[in-house]
């Protein structure tokens, strides 16, 4: 099970603008997209992500990340992978 410490680390990481830029860059790579799809299919990772997303300070960061064209494209790709 994902620990609160792990969630704290993810929140800190994803809250920084530099990190958001890096994530967007990573998402542009096809092999990274496959990794993301695998991560998203892992129930424990899903729980961790849900925990992270529920934090108020994360919601703004996630909204910003999700609005980038690359992320929109990635999300569509991930959702169509079933």
UniProtKB/TrEMBL annotation:
It holds the Pfam family GerD. InterPro entries: GerD_central. This is GerD family protein. Residues 30-81 form the Spore germination GerD central core domain.
């Amino acid at each position: 099970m994902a620990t609160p410490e792990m969630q704290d680390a993810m929140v800190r990481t994803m809250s920084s603008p530099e990190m958001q830029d890096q994530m967007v860059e990573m998402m542009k790579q096809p092999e990274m997209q496959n990794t993301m799809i695998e991560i998203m299919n892992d129930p424990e990772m899903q729980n961790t992500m849900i925990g992270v997303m529920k934090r108020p300070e994360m919601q703004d960061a996630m909204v910003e990340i999700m609005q980038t064209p690359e992320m929109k494209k990635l999300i569509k790709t991930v959702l169509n992978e079933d």
